[in-house]
Amino acid sequence: MAPFPASGHPAAEAYLADGYERVVGMSSRFAAAICARLLRLQTEEGVSGPIAEIGAFEGRFFIALAHALEPGEIALGIDIFEWPNPEVRERFEANCLKYGIAPEQRVTIKGDAGAMAPAELLAHARGERLRFIHVDGEHSRAALSKDLALATACLSEGGLIVLDDMLHPGYPTLMVAVQDYLEANPGVVPLCIIDRETIVGATKFVLCQRDWFERYQAALLEIFKEQIWPLGADFEPHWCLVLSLDTRLAEIT
């Protein structure tokens, strides 16, 4: 098995090692470490600004991302905060405080992202475009299509969109929404796939602007060389990396 990648942020490393699994949620620690490192890569490439998570729930993944921000940057946590009960917002706020994300580092937004206009989201981000958006909202084709449209409209130059629960057996139609989106938005391409850790901690797709693909991919090949599955992913005709804890190829005898 490949080792867990380093996130590149001491605070994120500490949280991932002793805190991540204590916060209720379903996102994998492997994916969180990779996404925290992607935020560091953006900083290294001169990409800065706020980030957002659609579907913050109790804050497990959100806290990891927030720890990977630079001073002065903020994280937006968006959720209807009604499932499984209205107290979920209180738990989100308490987890953020417990694990070191101060109120001035974040903005909590109660509402349906699918009903939000880009100008409204950007206003929450102090008028700045978002450099990283994690989409983990309602798992339906219609909702994902709306979230993708909002993310695209608010994304900064060099920004990344990360889609959760891709290829999950419980949500097989989400891939249809993604394929429709990619065909309608040729300026956006998959940068990499983050393989599942378990059936619960499922696959994520990372999308970037086409003009940034080669630049980011060159860095990923070095940063994640121990986590690269050799065959990659074929999006017909686009090809991208697959990052996995299990990088073996099938033995053919």
From TrEMBL:
Is Iron tagged as a keyword? no
Keywords assigned by UniProt, alphabetized? Methyltransferase, Transferase
| Entry superkingdom | Bacteria
Question: What SUPFAM superfamilies has UniProt attached to this entry?
Answer: S-adenosyl-L-methionine-dependent methyltransferases
The EC number of this protein is 2.1.1.-
Q: What biological-process GO terms show up in the record?
A: methylation
The Gene Ontology terms for molecular function here are: methyltransferase activity
Q: Is the keyword rRNA processing assigned to this protein?
A: no
Q: Which Pfam families match?
A: Methyltransf_24
InterPro entries linked = SAM-dependent_MTases_sf
The protein here is known as Class I SAM-dependent methyltransferase
